[in-house]
Amino acid sequence: MASLSAGGSPPGLLRLLVVFHESESLGAGRSVLQALDPLGRYGWTPSGWFPGDGPLLEEAAASIPTRAYRRKPIRYSVRGWRAEPGVVARLRDTPSYLRAFRQMLLHARPHVVHANTLRTLPEARVARKLGLPVVVHVHELPPPGAKRTLTLRTAAKTADVLVVVSEAVARVVRPQAGDTPILVAYNGVATPPDGRAGSTSPTVGTIGTVCRTKGTDVFLEAAALARERRPELRFEHIGQTGLDDDVEFERRVAALAGSVSMLGRRPAREGLDRWELFVLASRQDAFPLASLEAMAAGLPVIASDVGGLPEQIVHLESGVLVEPGNPSALADWVVRLHDDHQLRERLGEEAAKRVREHFTIEGQAAVLHKSYLAALNLRHGPPPARRQTLEVV
After folding, report:
1. How far is residue 172 from each of residues 141, 283, 284, 367, measured CA to CA in Å?
2. d(CA 164, CA 315)
3. What are 72-89's pLDDT values in tens digits?
4. If you classify domain 203-358 with CATH, what class do you get?
């Protein structure tokens, strides 16, 4: 374990330990990081555990004064377990990883442990065995099957409170949750104070990890179709590759990329400030941060009608929803919005308004604060307080 603490936690009324499932700066981790400042106004002082050194650890320095990390050997798929250094080495290193996390818990002495995503269930179970209140934050929409059922039941048995990022996730979690309370905490984003000047560049962009779930291949196919009809259009992709170890899919993406600029990891603002349209071609998505950030920036968004996206976007009021996995339909809407300046402007303005009214960081933090207090009451409160907590939640 490598501790990056600057000398212990600063004084605070309530100590919170956030367990991150990733060291990359991706949506689930970033969404919780940005909620820490308003949570501080409720009296929460955060510490953080990270499964390795990476960009998210660096990004967290400003908001989490006490941070520790250790490379996590645990994986959640056969392909992941087989990846270097291999199954045997991963199994051998797992007990020492969990012992290191236990030592972090004893050092930080949190009042509540926030396990951020289902991939932090091993750490959440360690915290549970120590008698600490646990909130499990479900950012995922896992595919149907026995694995999903087992994972969600384990999460419900481990957590005092389950927090989900959308009603779409709640519908999947509820049948397996039993008596464990569920709260919906929509991700929030900041709205740029100066709004957004209309783009003069006919560029269409997307943001997301290069993977099947995010529909990178669908975006690339739609780009080729749209450029056949409107050659002046340019397409850009911001996001990392190689995180899923899916070599076959990466080859497919390379073959489809064509004239699309694959920009790799870089700040979202570099695209959002220039693009004419934002596209999210996900095959499934619980409640993506990228589409919210585009909406907040006043960009018209075309997104797949899946998961939590219909909770973000009202079709033809604050964006466009299309059938998932259909590059032809996606290309049709790209061309239509490119041609119709007035429709683009209206959808962009309504998108920014919807974010300001429904998806603020302060609103997200308020629900997280409520979940932490509920977890404390359910674990340590007297019976009347526990009953009242269950009724309120």
Report:
1. 8, 16, 13, 20
2. 23
3. 999 988 888 988 999 999
4. alpha beta
Question: Taking the CB of residue 202, how many other CB atoms lie within 10 A of it?
Answer: 15
Residue pair 59/28 in contact (Cβ under 8 Å)? The answer is: no
Residues 318, 301: Cα–Cα separation, whole Å: 8
10 has a pLDDT exceeding 50: no
Q: For the domain 2-188+361-392, what is the CATH superfamily, name and number?
A: Glycogen Phosphorylase B; (3.40.50.2000)
CA 256, CA 306: separation in Å to the nearest integer? 23
**How confident is the model over 292-306, as pLDDT tens digits?**
999 999 999 999 999
Higher pLDDT, 386 or 11: 386
As to burial, measured by CB atoms within 10 angstroms (0-12 exposed, 13-18 middle, 19+ buried), residue 323 is: exposed
Domain definitions of the chain by residue range: 2-188+361-392, 203-358
Helix (H, G, I), strand (E, B) or coil at 360: coil
